[in-house]
Amino acid sequence: MKIGNIDLGERPVLLAPMEDVTDIGFRLLCRQMGAAMVYSEFVSSDALIRLVNKSLEKLRVCDDERPVAVQIYGKDVDAMREAARIVVDHARPDVLDLNFGCPVKKVAGKGAGAGLLQNVPQMLSIARAVVDAVPGTPVTAKTRLGWDMNHLIIEDLAEQLQDCGIQALTIHGRTRSQMYTGEADWEPIGRVKRNPRIHIPIIGNGDIATPERARECFDRYGVDAIMVGRATFGRPWIFREIRDYLDGKPASTEGIDWKLDVLRQQVLTSVERIDEYRGILHVRRHLAASPLFKGIPNFRETRIRMLRAETVADLFGIMEEIRDILHSSPNSIPPHAEQNNYEL
Ligand SMILES: Cc1cc2nc3c(=O)[nH]c(=O)nc-3n(C[C@H](O)[C@H](O)[C@H](O)COP(=O)(O)O)c2cc1C
Asked: Tell me, what CATH number does 271's domain have?
Protein backbone atom coordinates (compact mmCIF):
# COMPACT_ATOMS: atom_id res chain seq x y z
CA MET A 1 0.00 0.00 0.00
CA LYS A 2 1.34 3.41 -0.92
CA ILE A 3 0.62 6.96 0.19
CA GLY A 4 2.17 9.14 -2.48
CA ASN A 5 5.58 7.58 -3.02
CA ILE A 6 5.76 6.08 0.46
CA ASP A 7 5.52 2.34 0.33
CA LEU A 8 4.04 0.96 3.55
CA GLY A 9 4.12 -2.67 2.46
CA GLU A 10 1.31 -5.21 2.44
CA ARG A 11 -1.51 -4.79 4.97
CA PRO A 12 0.29 -2.19 7.07
CA VAL A 13 -0.57 -1.51 10.70
CA LEU A 14 -0.26 2.12 11.78
CA LEU A 15 0.05 3.81 15.18
CA ALA A 16 -2.88 6.21 15.67
CA PRO A 17 -2.26 9.87 16.52
CA MET A 18 -2.92 10.36 20.24
CA GLU A 19 -2.59 13.55 22.20
CA ASP A 20 -0.04 13.34 24.98
CA VAL A 21 0.81 9.76 24.00
CA THR A 22 2.42 9.55 20.56
CA ASP A 23 5.50 11.60 21.27
CA ILE A 24 8.80 10.85 19.60
CA GLY A 25 9.84 8.17 22.14
CA PHE A 26 6.63 6.19 21.88
CA ARG A 27 6.59 6.51 18.12
CA LEU A 28 10.12 5.12 17.88
CA LEU A 29 9.24 2.21 20.12
CA CYS A 30 6.15 1.37 18.06
CA ARG A 31 8.17 1.53 14.82
CA GLN A 32 10.68 -0.88 16.35
CA MET A 33 7.76 -3.15 17.25
CA GLY A 34 6.51 -3.22 13.68
CA ALA A 35 4.21 -0.23 13.12
CA ALA A 36 4.50 0.62 9.42
CA MET A 37 3.94 4.33 10.03
CA VAL A 38 3.43 6.43 13.14
CA TYR A 39 1.50 9.65 13.72
CA SER A 40 2.29 12.60 15.94
CA GLU A 41 -0.37 13.86 18.30
CA PHE A 42 -2.43 16.65 16.76
CA VAL A 43 -0.88 20.10 16.80
CA SER A 44 -2.94 23.28 16.86
CA SER A 45 -2.62 25.37 13.70
CA ASP A 46 -3.49 28.51 15.68
CA ALA A 47 -0.59 27.85 18.05
CA LEU A 48 1.80 27.01 15.21
CA ILE A 49 1.21 30.24 13.36
CA ARG A 50 1.90 32.13 16.60
CA LEU A 51 5.12 30.06 16.85
CA VAL A 52 4.20 28.85 20.34
CA ASN A 53 7.22 26.92 21.55
CA LYS A 54 5.31 24.02 23.07
CA SER A 55 3.62 23.37 19.74
CA LEU A 56 6.81 23.76 17.71
CA GLU A 57 8.42 21.15 19.99
CA LYS A 58 5.73 18.68 18.95
CA LEU A 59 7.07 18.92 15.40
CA ARG A 60 10.34 17.28 16.34
CA VAL A 61 10.75 14.03 14.42
CA CYS A 62 13.81 11.86 13.93
CA ASP A 63 14.92 9.88 10.92
CA ASP A 64 14.75 6.51 12.70
CA GLU A 65 11.00 6.80 13.08
CA ARG A 66 10.22 7.50 9.43
CA PRO A 67 7.80 7.16 7.80
CA VAL A 68 6.08 9.55 10.19
CA ALA A 69 2.94 11.63 9.76
CA VAL A 70 2.44 14.94 11.56
CA GLN A 71 -1.16 15.88 12.24
CA ILE A 72 -2.59 19.39 12.55
CA TYR A 73 -6.02 20.69 13.46
CA GLY A 74 -7.89 23.96 13.24
CA LYS A 75 -10.98 25.52 11.73
CA ASP A 76 -9.53 28.44 9.85
CA VAL A 77 -8.38 27.99 6.24
CA ASP A 78 -5.56 30.54 6.36
CA ALA A 79 -4.21 29.28 9.68
CA MET A 80 -4.26 25.67 8.45
CA ARG A 81 -2.52 26.63 5.20
CA GLU A 82 0.19 28.54 7.05
CA ALA A 83 0.57 25.86 9.74
CA ALA A 84 1.00 23.21 7.03
CA ARG A 85 3.93 25.17 5.59
CA ILE A 86 5.48 25.54 9.04
CA VAL A 87 5.16 21.79 9.66
CA VAL A 88 6.80 20.93 6.36
CA ASP A 89 9.63 23.44 6.94
CA HIS A 90 10.32 22.25 10.48
CA ALA A 91 9.67 18.51 10.36
CA ARG A 92 9.72 17.44 6.71
CA PRO A 93 7.12 14.79 7.60
CA ASP A 94 6.56 11.93 5.20
CA VAL A 95 2.84 12.69 5.41
CA LEU A 96 0.85 15.68 6.65
CA ASP A 97 -2.44 14.60 8.21
CA LEU A 98 -5.50 16.76 8.82
CA ASN A 99 -7.59 16.13 11.90
CA PHE A 100 -11.29 16.21 11.06
CA GLY A 101 -12.31 13.78 13.81
CA CYS A 102 -11.44 15.04 17.28
CA PRO A 103 -14.71 14.93 19.27
CA VAL A 104 -13.71 16.78 22.45
CA LYS A 105 -15.59 19.93 23.26
CA LYS A 106 -12.64 22.29 23.34
CA VAL A 107 -11.89 21.33 19.71
CA ALA A 108 -15.13 20.16 18.04
CA GLY A 109 -17.20 22.71 19.97
CA LYS A 110 -15.13 25.46 18.38
CA GLY A 111 -15.66 24.15 14.85
CA ALA A 112 -12.33 22.32 14.46
CA GLY A 113 -11.70 18.53 14.41
CA ALA A 114 -15.02 16.67 14.23
CA GLY A 115 -16.76 20.06 14.35
CA LEU A 116 -15.96 20.32 10.64
CA LEU A 117 -18.34 17.40 10.03
CA GLN A 118 -21.03 20.04 10.53
CA ASN A 119 -19.43 22.38 8.03
CA VAL A 120 -18.27 20.26 5.12
CA PRO A 121 -17.64 23.21 2.75
CA GLN A 122 -15.18 24.60 5.31
CA MET A 123 -13.52 21.19 5.71
CA LEU A 124 -13.08 20.91 1.95
CA SER A 125 -11.70 24.44 1.69
CA ILE A 126 -9.11 23.55 4.33
CA ALA A 127 -8.22 20.33 2.52
CA ARG A 128 -7.80 22.11 -0.83
CA ALA A 129 -5.77 24.97 0.67
CA VAL A 130 -3.39 22.63 2.50
CA VAL A 131 -2.91 20.35 -0.52
CA ASP A 132 -1.98 23.44 -2.58
CA ALA A 133 0.30 24.83 0.13
CA VAL A 134 2.61 21.81 0.45
CA PRO A 135 2.96 20.38 -3.05
CA GLY A 136 5.83 17.99 -2.23
CA THR A 137 4.15 16.36 0.78
CA PRO A 138 1.22 13.92 0.63
CA VAL A 139 -1.74 15.33 2.56
CA THR A 140 -4.11 12.85 4.23
CA ALA A 141 -7.13 13.22 6.51
CA LYS A 142 -8.61 11.41 9.50
CA THR A 143 -12.28 11.66 10.34
CA ARG A 144 -15.34 9.88 11.73
CA LEU A 145 -18.55 8.51 10.19
CA GLY A 146 -20.44 11.77 10.65
CA TRP A 147 -21.63 14.10 13.37
CA ASP A 148 -24.31 11.73 14.67
CA MET A 149 -26.39 8.76 13.58
CA ASN A 150 -28.74 11.06 11.63
CA HIS A 151 -25.83 12.44 9.64
CA LEU A 152 -23.71 9.53 8.49
CA ILE A 153 -21.97 11.40 5.70
CA ILE A 154 -18.74 9.46 5.32
CA GLU A 155 -19.52 7.86 1.96
CA ASP A 156 -20.03 11.18 0.17
CA LEU A 157 -17.38 12.90 2.23
CA ALA A 158 -14.70 10.39 1.23
CA GLU A 159 -15.27 11.22 -2.45
CA GLN A 160 -15.27 14.95 -1.75
CA LEU A 161 -11.98 14.76 0.17
CA GLN A 162 -10.44 12.64 -2.57
CA ASP A 163 -11.47 15.30 -5.09
CA CYS A 164 -9.60 17.90 -3.00
CA GLY A 165 -6.36 15.99 -3.46
CA ILE A 166 -6.30 14.12 -0.16
CA GLN A 167 -4.05 11.07 -0.73
CA ALA A 168 -5.37 8.69 1.95
CA LEU A 169 -8.30 8.74 4.35
CA THR A 170 -8.46 7.28 7.85
CA ILE A 171 -11.95 6.55 9.12
CA HIS A 172 -12.70 5.93 12.80
CA GLY A 173 -15.93 3.94 12.84
CA ARG A 174 -17.81 6.17 15.26
CA THR A 175 -19.76 9.40 15.04
CA ARG A 176 -18.78 12.55 16.92
CA SER A 177 -21.77 12.09 19.23
CA GLN A 178 -20.56 8.66 20.23
CA MET A 179 -17.24 10.08 21.40
CA TYR A 180 -15.62 6.79 22.49
CA THR A 181 -18.75 4.93 23.61
CA GLY A 182 -20.31 1.86 22.04
CA GLU A 183 -18.48 -0.11 19.41
CA ALA A 184 -16.81 1.14 16.26
CA ASP A 185 -18.96 0.31 13.22
CA TRP A 186 -16.79 -0.89 10.36
CA GLU A 187 -19.64 -1.46 7.88
CA PRO A 188 -19.59 2.13 6.56
CA ILE A 189 -15.78 1.93 6.32
CA GLY A 190 -16.20 -1.16 4.15
CA ARG A 191 -18.76 0.65 1.97
CA VAL A 192 -16.35 3.54 1.39
CA LYS A 193 -13.65 1.07 0.41
CA ARG A 194 -15.97 -0.77 -1.99
CA ASN A 195 -17.06 2.44 -3.73
CA PRO A 196 -15.58 2.07 -7.24
CA ARG A 197 -15.00 5.82 -7.45
CA ILE A 198 -12.64 5.73 -4.47
CA HIS A 199 -9.04 5.14 -5.51
CA ILE A 200 -7.12 6.55 -2.52
CA PRO A 201 -6.09 4.17 0.28
CA ILE A 202 -8.65 3.77 3.06
CA ILE A 203 -7.28 3.24 6.56
CA GLY A 204 -9.73 1.68 9.03
CA ASN A 205 -9.64 2.55 12.71
CA GLY A 206 -11.54 1.69 15.86
CA ASP A 207 -11.38 -0.95 18.58
CA ILE A 208 -8.69 -3.20 17.12
CA ALA A 209 -7.16 -4.99 20.10
CA THR A 210 -6.27 -8.46 18.84
CA PRO A 211 -4.39 -9.91 15.88
CA GLU A 212 -7.53 -11.87 14.96
CA ARG A 213 -9.62 -8.72 14.79
CA ALA A 214 -6.90 -7.00 12.77
CA ARG A 215 -7.04 -9.72 10.14
CA GLU A 216 -10.82 -9.69 10.14
CA CYS A 217 -10.81 -5.95 9.45
CA PHE A 218 -8.57 -6.44 6.44
CA ASP A 219 -10.47 -9.48 5.15
CA ARG A 220 -14.03 -8.39 5.76
CA TYR A 221 -13.86 -4.67 5.05
CA GLY A 222 -11.08 -4.68 2.46
CA VAL A 223 -9.25 -1.69 3.94
CA ASP A 224 -5.74 -0.88 2.73
CA ALA A 225 -4.32 -0.36 6.21
CA ILE A 226 -5.47 -0.46 9.82
CA MET A 227 -4.66 1.95 12.62
CA VAL A 228 -4.36 1.01 16.28
CA GLY A 229 -4.72 3.47 19.18
CA ARG A 230 -5.71 2.58 22.74
CA ALA A 231 -4.68 -1.06 22.52
CA THR A 232 -1.03 0.08 22.38
CA PHE A 233 -1.13 1.38 25.96
CA GLY A 234 1.11 -0.80 28.06
CA ARG A 235 1.35 -3.10 25.06
CA PRO A 236 3.50 -1.56 22.33
CA TRP A 237 4.35 -5.10 21.19
CA ILE A 238 0.83 -5.39 19.78
CA PHE A 239 2.30 -4.33 16.44
CA ARG A 240 4.56 -7.35 16.46
CA GLU A 241 1.71 -9.64 17.53
CA ILE A 242 -0.46 -8.39 14.68
CA ARG A 243 2.38 -8.44 12.14
CA ASP A 244 3.35 -12.02 12.97
CA TYR A 245 -0.25 -13.13 12.72
CA LEU A 246 -0.94 -11.34 9.43
CA ASP A 247 2.25 -12.71 7.93
CA GLY A 248 1.50 -16.25 9.11
CA LYS A 249 4.64 -16.40 11.23
CA PRO A 250 4.95 -17.94 14.70
CA ALA A 251 4.55 -15.35 17.47
CA SER A 252 7.89 -13.66 18.12
CA THR A 253 6.85 -11.68 21.19
CA GLU A 254 8.65 -13.24 24.06
CA GLY A 255 7.81 -13.88 27.70
CA ILE A 256 7.21 -11.78 30.76
CA ASP A 257 10.82 -10.62 31.07
CA TRP A 258 11.01 -9.39 27.50
CA LYS A 259 7.72 -7.50 27.84
CA LEU A 260 8.73 -5.94 31.15
CA ASP A 261 12.00 -4.89 29.54
CA VAL A 262 10.11 -3.24 26.68
CA LEU A 263 8.06 -1.28 29.22
CA ARG A 264 11.21 -0.35 31.15
CA GLN A 265 12.72 0.91 27.91
CA GLN A 266 9.60 3.00 27.33
CA VAL A 267 10.05 4.62 30.75
CA LEU A 268 13.75 5.32 30.17
CA THR A 269 13.14 6.81 26.72
CA SER A 270 10.43 9.05 28.09
CA VAL A 271 12.66 10.24 30.93
CA GLU A 272 15.63 10.81 28.64
CA ARG A 273 13.58 12.83 26.21
CA ILE A 274 11.79 14.99 28.76
CA ASP A 275 13.00 14.86 32.35
CA GLU A 276 12.51 12.42 35.19
CA TYR A 277 9.40 13.94 36.75
CA ARG A 278 7.48 14.80 33.60
CA GLY A 279 8.76 11.69 31.79
CA ILE A 280 7.30 9.48 34.52
CA LEU A 281 4.02 11.42 34.56
CA HIS A 282 3.81 10.90 30.85
CA VAL A 283 4.11 7.08 30.88
CA ARG A 284 2.93 5.77 34.22
CA ARG A 285 -0.80 5.94 33.38
CA HIS A 286 -0.29 3.83 30.28
CA LEU A 287 2.05 1.42 31.96
CA ALA A 288 -0.41 0.81 34.77
CA ALA A 289 -3.00 -0.14 32.15
CA SER A 290 -0.81 -2.88 30.69
CA PRO A 291 -2.60 -6.14 29.97
CA LEU A 292 0.54 -7.81 31.28
CA PHE A 293 -0.64 -6.98 34.80
CA LYS A 294 -4.21 -8.06 34.28
CA GLY A 295 -5.14 -10.95 36.47
CA ILE A 296 -2.42 -10.35 39.07
CA PRO A 297 -4.07 -11.01 42.43
CA ASN A 298 -4.85 -7.77 44.31
CA PHE A 299 -3.29 -5.67 41.58
CA ARG A 300 -5.39 -2.63 42.50
CA GLU A 301 -3.02 -1.50 45.24
CA THR A 302 0.08 -2.03 43.14
CA ARG A 303 -1.59 -0.13 40.31
CA ILE A 304 -2.29 2.83 42.56
CA ARG A 305 1.36 2.85 43.63
CA MET A 306 2.41 2.82 39.99
CA LEU A 307 0.11 5.73 39.26
CA ARG A 308 1.73 7.67 42.11
CA ALA A 309 5.37 6.84 41.34
CA GLU A 310 7.47 9.95 40.77
CA THR A 311 10.94 8.55 40.12
CA VAL A 312 12.41 5.90 37.86
CA ALA A 313 13.67 4.06 40.96
CA ASP A 314 10.13 3.92 42.42
CA LEU A 315 8.58 2.75 39.20
CA PHE A 316 11.25 0.15 38.46
CA GLY A 317 11.03 -1.10 42.05
CA ILE A 318 7.31 -1.75 41.57
CA MET A 319 7.96 -3.39 38.21
CA GLU A 320 10.48 -5.75 39.80
CA GLU A 321 7.89 -6.75 42.41
CA ILE A 322 5.53 -7.46 39.55
CA ARG A 323 8.19 -9.51 37.78
CA ASP A 324 8.55 -11.67 40.91
CA ILE A 325 4.80 -12.08 41.24
CA LEU A 326 4.43 -13.04 37.60
CA HIS A 327 7.25 -15.56 37.85
CA SER A 328 5.92 -17.11 41.03
CA SER A 329 2.35 -17.38 39.74
CA PRO A 330 2.53 -17.63 35.93
CA ASN A 331 -1.13 -18.66 35.86
CA SER A 332 -2.10 -15.12 36.77
CA ILE A 333 -1.43 -13.94 33.21
CA PRO A 334 -4.09 -14.86 30.73
CA PRO A 335 -2.39 -16.74 27.86
CA HIS A 336 -3.48 -14.07 25.38
CA ALA A 337 -3.73 -10.91 27.43
CA GLU A 338 -5.61 -8.72 25.02
CA GLN A 339 -7.42 -5.85 26.61
CA ASN A 340 -5.64 -3.23 28.62
CA ASN A 341 -7.28 -1.50 31.52
CA TYR A 342 -7.22 1.96 30.03
CA GLU A 343 -10.26 4.13 30.52
CA LEU A 344 -10.83 7.52 28.95
C1 LIG B 1 -5.73 9.67 24.60
C2 LIG B 1 -6.17 9.81 23.18
C3 LIG B 1 -5.73 10.87 22.42
C4 LIG B 1 -6.13 11.01 21.08
N5 LIG B 1 -5.63 12.04 20.34
C6 LIG B 1 -5.90 12.08 19.00
C7 LIG B 1 -5.27 13.04 18.15
O8 LIG B 1 -4.45 13.87 18.60
N9 LIG B 1 -5.59 13.03 16.83
C10 LIG B 1 -6.49 12.12 16.29
O11 LIG B 1 -6.75 12.13 15.09
N12 LIG B 1 -7.09 11.20 17.08
C13 LIG B 1 -6.80 11.16 18.39
N14 LIG B 1 -7.35 10.15 19.16
C15 LIG B 1 -8.22 9.14 18.51
C16 LIG B 1 -7.38 7.93 18.07
O17 LIG B 1 -6.45 8.30 17.08
C18 LIG B 1 -8.29 6.83 17.50
O19 LIG B 1 -8.99 7.33 16.40
C20 LIG B 1 -9.30 6.31 18.53
O21 LIG B 1 -8.70 6.11 19.79
C22 LIG B 1 -9.96 5.00 18.05
O23 LIG B 1 -8.99 4.01 17.83
P24 LIG B 1 -8.69 2.84 18.92
O25 LIG B 1 -10.00 2.18 19.19
O26 LIG B 1 -7.70 1.94 18.24
O27 LIG B 1 -8.16 3.52 20.14
C28 LIG B 1 -7.01 10.04 20.50
C29 LIG B 1 -7.45 8.97 21.28
C30 LIG B 1 -7.04 8.83 22.60
C31 LIG B 1 -7.53 7.66 23.39
From this structure: 1.10.1200
